[in-house]
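Support request from a user on the community tier.

User writes: "When I paste my structure tokens into the form, the page sometimes reloads and wipes my input. The last time it worked, I copied everything first. Here is what I submitted, just in case something in the input itself triggers the reload:"
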């Protein structure tokens, strides 16, 4: 039986929640990237890394870059967590390409999981960024807004949680297939 380590970067708890669900399903352990060191990666047979999507950045990407040599042959999957479904390849692919080297993406399966947002708990900078984004979206004609745009406008100022333990099933099945 191969050992699995799930490393995550989480600012508001959604990525942590998913990492813990994934680790539980795989019989592995979950560690924040700030606590996961090279020795933890070396000891694991398979590693899953993930984090939230914030302003074009993927949480956990710097961990993958920092530990790239020791992750070679062990990086089983990447996961992202965001408010929007991000099921559009034309949006999701450039984001991943911006954050990960081509050889990492070519050899690693990526999964997107839907998280949430509680506007009252956002850090000041994130709250300001959301306010500017909403302002720009409101200027768009309703007919020009995407489903994601409208979803963001509808949830602005509220607490939304779309996380679902069942949504880790495809990722878990994929990693189990590597064992």
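"...and here is what came back when it finally went through:"
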């Amino acid at each position: 039986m191969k050992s699995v380590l799930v490393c995550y970067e989480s600012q508001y708890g959604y990525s942590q929640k998913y990492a813990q669900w994934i680790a539980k399903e795989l019989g592995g352990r979950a560690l924040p990237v700030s606590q996961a060191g090279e020795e933890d990666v070396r000891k694991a047979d398979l590693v899953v890394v993930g984090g939230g999507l914030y302003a074009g950045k993927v949480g956990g990407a710097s961990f993958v870059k920092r530990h790239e040599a020791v992750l070679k042959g062990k990086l089983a999957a990447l996961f992202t967590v965001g408010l929007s479904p991000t099921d559009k390849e034309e949006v999701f692919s450039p984001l991943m390409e911006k954050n990960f080297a081509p050889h990492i993406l070519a050899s690693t399966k990526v999964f997107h999981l839907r998280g949430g947002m509680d506007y009252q708990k956002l850090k000041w900078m994130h709250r300001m960024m959301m306010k500017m984004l909403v302002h720009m979206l409101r200027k768009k004609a309703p007919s020009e807004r995407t489903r994601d745009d409208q979803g963001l406008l509808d949830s602005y100022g509220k607490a939304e949680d779309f996380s679902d333990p069942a949504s880790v099933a495809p990722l878990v099945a994929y990693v189990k297939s590597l064992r």
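Agent notes: The reload is a front-end session timeout and is unrelated to the input. Residues 124-139 form the longest helix (16 residues). The beta strands are 4-9, 29-32, 46-54, 57-58, 75-82, 109-114, 116-118, 159-161. Escalated to web team.
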